[in-house]
Amino acid sequence: MHAALLWLSLVVAAPEFEAVGASAPVRGEFVSLNNTEVVLRTAEGERKLPLATVTEIRAVPAVKPAEAEPVGVELAGGSLAMASQVTLADGKLSLITSGGRQLTMFARGAAWVRFAPIKESLLAQWNEAMQGRAKGDVLVVQKAAALDYLTGTVHAIDAETVQFENEGEKFPVKRAKVVGIGFAVPANPAPLAKPLCTVALVDGSRWQVATVKLDGEQLRLESTGGAQLEAKLDQVVSFRFASAFLSDEPIERWTFRSFVGLAGGDDATDARFHRPRLNESLSGGALFVGAKKYEKGVSLYGGTEVVFRLPAQGGGLQGLLALAPNSPAGARAEVTLLGDDRQLGRWELVGGSTVPVKVTLGSAQRVRLVATGADERTPQVYFLEPRLTK
Fold first, then answer.
1. pLDDT above 50 (res 346)
2. Rounded Cα gap, residues 340 and 315, in angstroms
3. What is the pLDDT of residue 70?
């Protein structure tokens, strides 16, 4: 009797997940996932759900990602791995994930390593430094309140130093002084596999994966760039699938700057008064232009920059730009779309009309939507029906 009770106390229920999308949510144990369907084991038996009807599979109850480890590594294909340790030797990059697992890959399979979070005010400088990857490896350090960088070759990384070569001179740099490293863009990059979904883990990692296999309670993931990872099922926050609309993707970050130069972003005041909204107006109502109602869209104030991480590379983005009906009389706006740091297009908006948008995203991993006002009359901008195309 006591042994049976002890055995029962040791039994841990399999983690539950909820599939959401076009149809009613379905909750159950995760069974399998491939490029056509996801299978959940519900109280009524196994349910096979076509992926075309699913936008996300999320842990129930909701799991909040932990604070990120100090080292972030972006891989080819856009996966972001969080690690407690990163080393480089003989052209191979080794990562120790927060789960204690080791990943080893050629350095050319990584885009960059950041040894500490980058302040929002320095992200533009970081992005500028990463443009140097077209010429070689990039070593980024912080000097006072700014970032500085050198282009050359990274030969080794350990816990104490980075061995770097610039213009034929080799020298060690203390790791503590290095903000991050960008790895040279390969002359002939390996082709990427077609993405299946993005898997978010509790350590803050986001994996763009081509395959997902379940072995007991262990997930075996392969990224679109060929990196392989194992993770326990209870470490998964969600599986996200490519959305049909940009406004169904979560905002990665945003900033607001008024015409008179008062900056903000993500603090309590700006979150209440200036935060961008998805699939609703800035006042929380429906999206209308004239008598027409739109179900999908991004609404933002002039002076706002919004960054979305794309669910997959390639394809395009199309939709309509317009000023919201309750923009100040006579207000005008300029909207710029960027794929990473490459400008995709720029449009001027005046009241009473919509402007069509159709751009090719190419290899961009993020889309930046920037709205600016022409004067102190802060306009309200809509990006309507922002469809992601293949």
1. yes
2. 14
3. 65
SS3 330: coil
For 142-156, 158-172, 270-284, 350-364, which range has the lowest pLDDT when averaged over its residues? 270-284
DSSP H helical ranges for 66-211: 123-130
Give the residues across from 223 on adjacent strands: 209
E strand spans, 263-325: 263-264, 277-278, 287-289, 292-294, 297-301, 304-309, 316-323
DSSP letters of 173-201? EEGGGEEEEEPPPPSSPPPPPPP-EEEEE
Cross-sheet strand order for the sheet of 297-301? 277-278, 297-301, 380-389, 316-323, 354-360
Considering the entire predicted model, what is its pTM? Answer: 0.70
Mean pLDDT, range 232-254, rounded to an integer: 86
Provide the token pair at 83. Answer: 């690690």
- Residues 6+ away with beta carbon under 8 Å from 39: 31, 32, 33, 46, 47, 48, 49
| Separation CA 171–CA 368 (nearest Å) | 37
Query: Does residue 119 surpass a pLDDT of 60?
Result: yes
